[in-house]
Amino acid sequence: MPAITNHMPTAELQALDSAHHMHPFTTGDELTAKGARVITRANGVYLTDSEGVEILDGMAGLWCVNIGYGRDELAEVAARQMRELPYYNTFFQTTHVPAIALANKIAELAPGDLNHVFFASGGSEANDTNIRMVRTYWAAKGKPDKNILISRHNAYHGSSIGSGSLGGMSGMHAQGGLPIPDIHHINQPDWWAEGGDMTPEEFGLARARELEQAILDLGEDRVAAFIAEPVQGAGGVIVAPDSYWPEIQRICDKYEILLIVDEVICGFGRTGNWFGSQTLNIRPDIMTIAKGLSSGYQPIGGSVVSDEVAKTIDGLEFNHGYTYSGHPVASAVALENLRILEEEGIVDRVREETAPYLAEKWHGLADHPLVGETQIVGMMASLALTPDKASRAKFASDAGTVGLICRERCFANNLIMRHVGDRMVISPPLVLSLAEVDVLIERARRALDECHAQLK
Ligand code: PLP
Questions:
Q1: Which of 13, 241, 312, 382 could be bridged to 200 by S-S, CB 3.0 to 4.6 A?
Q2: 450 CA from centroid of ligand 1 (Å)
Q3: Is the CB of 128 inside a 6 Å radius of any atom of ligand 1?
Q4: Which CDD domains match (predicted)?
């Protein structure tokens, strides 16, 4: 086999890709016909493809490259750690400095008494840990029947059998025998699509109270935990009405339900604070972390756990763990990423400067004929495409067709913006400059214009 390099013609790379590489969440045959876009390098907030085209990455990879691309410091740390201790595990009463240092740093940054970290390689694994941890917790408390986890339709918590069951993606549940037993889903707080005649505040309360109803129906003594993203990410950057989270918190407190907040996207500065829970005033018992923890430079995630949960779990042998739990190279890189986020004041800058500027420009897109609702929290934002703003109507074509056209027009304008059905979403690197915000908005508007023209 010849060496496969960046210097090969794009068509050859695409053919080799489709011959042997199966892509996540992709119809392989369609991709083979079209050819995947080959990304060869990246710097700052820009990607470069195999044709030499520069693309503004409005998604920070997969919601993860918080510090932007091309930070040599992380490469240096990785190389140093690989030479010193490339691998050792944290099973069997051993540990190592990178895992110790990272766990301590996360405990320092995390809110409240979330002082303990169980590491994983990503968000799916961490949510699998959470399922087993909360069930083990309640069993240790003498309540082994308290083992149901409540989640939300259209939530995303990962792709493993456990985390995919926790998530509420119908397309995922249709394949491979999901969900596993004792997972229950309630409706999401998406006022634009599902709010009917209610005000957003009324709707937020109504949707939160579905949690209370589910607890009463299933039995307080059966429900272990409720899990949710502070702002639904993969579901379409859906920001709940203000009334939602206080009510969820009240219900979890009242019925002694553990609250798991999935911070895989919202964590590490995305919402303008270290965690989305701080932005939205939520008090979790467990937080799921991944993505921005290492800015995607290494695969690492984890569960950040309260003193109370950790005390109970530490009192028994928790028969759970991954070969790469607390991987030394991933931990060292994550620690360096956190150092950069903190020392360069990136999170503060997002909150005080970049996010308010982006919000002003993003909401400005609401005057476009195709755009209904615009939502934004920190550096994650969405807009709902609609044929009629006043009635919040959906397009007559299959859900997602217009979103797909719009995404293609973004691509053609060298902007990565994702579509979730007919919602367009962005989640750019946190280091986006104000001038780059302007470029992003200008390209987004052009893509919307072209999409609008194509629909006529
Ligand atoms: N939880 C949330 C909120 C996510 O957005 C994701 C991934 O997008 C996951 C969990 C799964 O993380 P991973 O893909 O690292 O397994």
A1: 241
A2: 32
A3: no
A4: OAT_like (cd00610)
